[in-house]
Amino acid sequence: MTQTLETTGNYAEDFEALDAVRAVVAPKWLTSLRRRSIAAFTEAGLPTRRHEEWRYTPIPRVVETPFKLAGYGVSATPHLHDVIDYTFGDLKAHQLVFIDGKFAPTLSTILPLPSGVRIGSLAELLQEDPLAVEGKLGGIAEVDGLAFPALNTAFFHDGAYVLLPKNAVVDEPIHILYLSSGGAEAAVTYPRTLVVAGESSQAMVVESFAGSSGELYFTNAVTEFYIAANANIEHNKLTREGAQAQHIATTQIDIERSATFTSHNITLGGLLVRNNFNAHLGGEGIVCTLNGLYMGRDKQLVDNHTFIDHAQPHCESHEIYKGILDGQSRGVFNGKIMVRPDAQKTDAKQTNKTLLLSKEATIDTKPQLEIFADDVRCTHGATVGQSDEEAIFYLRTRGIGEADARSLMVYAFAADIVNRITIEPVRRRLDEALFTEGALQGIAR
Amino acid sequence: MLTIKNLHARVEEKEILRGIDLQVNPGEVHAIMGPNGSGKSTLAGVLAGRDSYEVTDGTVTFNGADLLDLGPEERAREGVFLAFQYPVEIPGVNNTYFLKAALNAIRKHRGEDELDAMEFLKLVRQKLKILHIDQSLLNRPVNEGFSGGEKKRNEIFQMAVLDPKLAILDETDSGLDIDALKSVADGVNALRTPDRAVVVVTHYQRLLNYIVPDFVHVLAKGRIIKSGGKELALELEERGYDWLLEGAEPVGAR
Q: B125 CB contacts (<8 Å, ≥6 apart)?
C-alpha cells in the first residue's frame, strides 16, 4: 500500500545494504537485535498525528526528508575550536566527543578512572569486547511499536558507554558530546548511550546534543540507564541543536531498590525537539527526579513526554518541568505517572509551569495519572501564564528599569531549574547559553 | 521635599483618595494612621507609582519635580522608596544580584560610578552590621521562604542600601511580633538623618512607641481629617477613631 511506503521511507533498503556488511563482523546477538528492530520499525511505520503520542507534534520534515547516514563518508578532521562552545571551560571531566556520530579520540579525554570503571566508544567496545554489553545494550529500550528507538537500534554506529562496577565512585563528571556538523545533504545520526551503574555506584553524566549548522539534519538518539540497587546517578541532558535540526530522543531508565536517579533535561535549541523519558521504578525506596527546562522561540517546537512507572512501594518521584516560549514557538508536556497495585506509599509530585512571552506562543500540557494503589500521595499541577506583574512592579520600585525587570523575571524562572544542577561549570555555561540561544536572546542582561 | 495638593485617586470606578494635602520636609517623620479602608495603602501606592490607581485630580511634587509624571523606577532613582506591606517573593533572583542591579541603576541616574562586586559587598556588609542582620540573607532568593519579620527587615535593609531621600513604610509593622517590630523600628531609627524624610503608614499606634513621629495625620474616607503631634497617636490609641469620624464627612461629599 502506498500508505506504508510513505511512512517507512527508504529505511528498510538502507538497512539491507548496511546489514550485509555489518553482519560479517558483528556479534550474532547484535545482528539479530538490529534485524528485529528494523522489522519492528517496518511494522510500526513513522508516526502521524493520528498516534495519540504524537497528537500535538507534527513531524513533516522527519517523515518527508530522505536523510543520509552521516559519518560514513569523508569526514573533515574535527578541531577543538568546533567543540569548545559546547564544553565547560575549566571543568575537570571525562569527555567523550562524537562528531557526526563518530567517536573523535583527539577531542576526547578520559582521566584516570577508579578500578573496574570503563568509559569509551561503543563502536570500539563492540569490536573488542562485545560481551561486556551483551544483554544490556538494547535490553530496556523498547522497539515494538516505537519507530524512532527501533530505527536507532537498527542503525546506530557509535555512542558512549559507561560501566560502573559495584561501589565505584567517579568523582569527575562524564561529559558525552554529540555534535552534528551538518552539510548540504540532510544527514541523520543515531547517537546511542549506555550507562550501567552497579550496586552503590555513583556518577554524574552530562549528555550534550549540539550543532552549529543552520542546515536541516536529524538526530535520533537512544540512551539506556541501568541503575542498580543503592546507586546514585545524576544525569543532565543539554539539547542545543542547530536552527533547522530535528531531534527525537528516548531515555530509558531502569531503577532498582533504594537507588537515586536525578535528571535535568534542558532544551535550548533545535527546530523540533522531542524527548521521551521513561523511568521504571522496580524496587522499594527509590527516589527518582525528572526535571526539565525548555526554551522556545521563532517556530521551535519542544515536546517532552515523561513516564514514571511506580511498580514497587515506598518510592518517591519528583518532577518539575518549566518552559519559556516566545515568538511562534510551541511546547508540549505530557507527564504520565503510573502507580501499580503493589506500589503502596508512593509519593509522586509533578509540576509543569510555562511562561508565554508572546501571544502566538502555545503550550499543550497534559498530566496523566493512572493510580491502581490506594495508599499513595500523588499531586500534579500545571500553570501557564505571563510574568508576575506584582514582582515586576516591586523590582521597578527599587530603580530597575521595566525591560530589565522583565528579563530578570524570565531569567529567574529558568534559573530555578538550572540552579538544581550540581556541577557548577555546567550551570555557569547554561546561564550564558540562556542569554545567547534561548528565549532571552536580544534581551539585555 | 514632598508636596501633595488636593490628591484624588480611584481604583476602577471607586474613588479612594478624595483630596489629600500633605507637606513633608527633609528630616521629618510623618505618621499616617487611619481605620481599614481609609485609603492609607492607596496613598502609599500612588506615591510609588502603582498603575492600578488612577489619579484624577491634584498634584504631587517631589523636590520640584512632578512625581506623578514619573514611572516607578524613575521615582526610585529620584530617591523615593516604598517598603511594601506585602514584600513580593521572587524565586530564582538572588538578593545580592537584585540589590546591586537596583543600586547601580540609581547611581547611574545620579551620575555616580557603578559599584563593582567588591565595593558593593563592602557597602552591604556595613549596612548589615548597622541593622544587625545576618549575612546569610544575601545569598537567598528575594524574600522567598522568608518569615514575615524577615521580609520586613529585608525591606529596611534595601532602604539602607539604596539610601533614599524619602522612605514610605506601608504597614511595615502589621503582623510582626514585638521582637520583630523592635528590630524593624531600630533599623528605621538608625537610618534617620536630617536629610531623609520618613512617612510611616500604620494601622496601629504601637509602632509609634518605637519610631517617634514629628507629625501624626489621621486619614479617613480618603481625606486627612486631623493632624497633630505625636500625642495625637496616643489619643487615638485611647479613644479609637470613632470620635473623629463623626462629622468627618466632608462638605459636599456624596
A: B135
Taking CB atoms and an 8 Å limit, are A404 and B106 in contact across chains? no
Measured CA to CA in angstroms, residue A307 lies from A41, A45, A84, A347 at distances of: 22, 22, 34, 15
Residue A210 has pLDDT above 80, yes or no: yes
Chain A interface mutation, best of B53, B93, B99, B108, highest count of A Cβ atoms under 10 Å = B93
Question: Minimal CA–CA distance to A288: which of A266, A256, A332, A321?
Answer: A256
Residue A234 CA, chain-centre distance (Å), reads 13
| Chain A residues within an 8 Å CB radius of B161 | none
**Cα B199 from chain centre:** 6
> What is the distance in angstroms between the Cα of A416 and the nearest Cα belonging to chain B?
5
CB contact at 8 A, A336 and A306 = yes
- What's this model's pTM, rounded to 2 decimal places? 0.83
Contact A397 B90 (CB under 8 A): no
Q: Is the Cβ pair B162, A398 closer than 8 Å?
A: yes
pLDDT tens, residue by residue, A280-304: 999 999 999 999 999 999 999 999 9
Determine whether the interchain pair A401/B105 forms a contact, defined as Cβ–Cβ distance below 8 Å. yes
Angstrom CA distances, B131 to A443, B30, B128, B172, B189, stand at 36, 22, 5, 16, 10
- Asked if B85 and B176 count as a contact pair (C-beta separation under 8 A), the reply is no
Q: CA geometry: angle at A356 spanning A354 and A361, to 5°? A: 115
Strand pairing partners for A337? A308, A369
Report the chain B residue with the minimal C-alpha distance to residue A418: B92
For chain B, percent of residues with pLDDT exceeding 90: 68
Ranges assigned E (strand) in A62-216: 68-69, 94-99, 102-103, 118-121, 159-164, 174-180, 187-189, 192-197, 202-211
Give the count of alpha carbons within 13 A of B171, CB side only.
17
Mean pLDDT over each residue of chain A, to the nearest integer: 92
Backbone angles phi, psi at A215, to 5 degrees: -85, 165
Per the CB < 8 A criterion, the answer to whether B165 and B196 are in contact is yes
| Inter-chain residue contact A412 with B71, CB threshold 8 Å | no
Instruction: Kindly list the distances between the CA atom of residue A427 and the CA atoms of A89, A238, A431, B172, B220, in Å, as whole numbers in the listed order.
Output: 11, 11, 6, 37, 53
Cβ–Cβ gap A416/B75 under 8 Å: no
A222-255 per-position pLDDT tens digit: 999 999 999 999 999 999 999 999 999 999 999 9
pLDDT at residue A4 above 60? no
Q: Which residues pair with A378 in a beta bridge?
A: A348
Residue in A with minimal Cα distance to B141: A412
Closest residue on chain B to A408 (Cα) = B93
Q: In angstroms, what separates the C-alpha of A412 from chain B's closest C-alpha? A: 4
B155-179 average pLDDT score? 92
Give the best residue of B46, B70, B75, B88 to mutate against chain A (max A CB count within 10 A): B88
Which of these, A220, A208, A315, A221, lies nearest to A268 by C-alpha position? A208
Task: Dump the DSSP string for B137-166.
Answer: GGGSEETTT--HHHHHHHHHHHHHHH--SE
Mean pLDDT of chain B: 91
B99 touches chain A (CB under 8 A): yes
> Which residue of A388, A401, A419 is in closest CB contact with B73?
A401
pLDDT reading at A73 higher than 90: no
Is A394 close to B101, i.e. CB distance below 8 A? no
